[in-house]
Fold this protein.
Amino acid sequence: LTSVRKYELVVVLSPDMDEETTTGVVNRVNQFITERGGALVKQDSWGLRRLAYPIQKYREGNYRLTLLSLDPKYAQELESSLRVTPSVLRHLLVQKE
């Protein structure tokens, strides 16, 4: 019995990537989720937004929201993979009620 939980993932991507590269990163995240039995509920691009403070010399970031369901044992792994992805400036994975 696996307990799948709902999560909300916001990823802030480097603003100097072209659309193709951005899509590639988003697709890799999606692939990670689906390969581990998770499901993508909804995806939304919030586009370029000003950051509250500069991150790695950037003042803007390309925001992406993903609502997903995933076995909690893979949540840590997902975060680790996002942490080592150079084009991801920041990410936040929050468990939804």
Notes: The CA atoms of residues 2 and 71 lie 7 Å apart. Helices lie at 19-35, 75-83. The longest helix spans residues 19-35. The two ends are 20 Å apart (CA to CA).
